[in-house]
């Protein structure tokens, strides 16, 4: 069982995004880096099959840390023939760290984390506000990110953007049995080439397993696309109506609430 994150009454704010960059050194030998531990957010592991006293794990993750209290690292001994064995672990208190950042008016810091029962992990943490990461404004560009859905539909002459269709098809082809699909956060370094290729030409982009081994990079691009739409997929005008409909319980009609929600969905623009 992974070690529990220390409980605390304080929480990070809803506006926080955590960027975890380049854990430069691991005093480990043949280990697999584990995962981000909070309520729901985790990131994909990275594996090294090299025997070394200092493993350089050059990865970067962007993590939404709303409500998260701790950042946990679990290091396992890699064994493809049996269950991996947890050997080292360490935790960072995100609440204290973020409070320290705000007091010192900084957003980034390099950290040396002592692991249990021994060893050290070096990495850099950067906090950012959501509005700094995602900007819901129309993009004056020829790509697909930040472009209104109705404009994409007219440009591509299709009711579903090619990026959405291609990403979902690939997930259904090889990702439905993957644990944490659409929830786990893929590496930013792996995601960026996929994003660039789809932004240049979604029709020609190759997101197959041969080109993009990590399916979480594909789901990450799809989530980026939806987050950067000038208006949410479920429009601002209908969002509150849907929330109200979820609370409706019609006497003698147990399916009345569902019918009401479906009628609200019918009010969405065709492209949505």
TrEMBL record:
One record GO biological process: cell projection organization
InterPro entries to which the protein is assigned, alphabetical: Rho-GAP_regulator, Rho_GTPase_activation_prot, RhoGAP_dom, SYDE1/2_C2
Signal sequence bounds: none
Keyword Thylakoid applies: no
Annotated Rho-GAP domain residues: 147-272
This protein's GO CC annotations: synaptic membrane
Pfam family of the protein (one): C2_SYDE
Keywords: GTPase activation
GO molecular function annotations of the record: GTPase activator activity
Source species, domain of life: Eukaryota
PANTHER family: RHO GTPASE-ACTIVATING PROTEIN 100F (PTHR46150)
Protein name: Rho-GAP domain-containing protein
Species in which this protein is naturally found: Macrostomum lignano
Native organism taxonomy: Eukaryota, Metazoa, Spiralia, Lophotrochozoa, Platyhelminthes
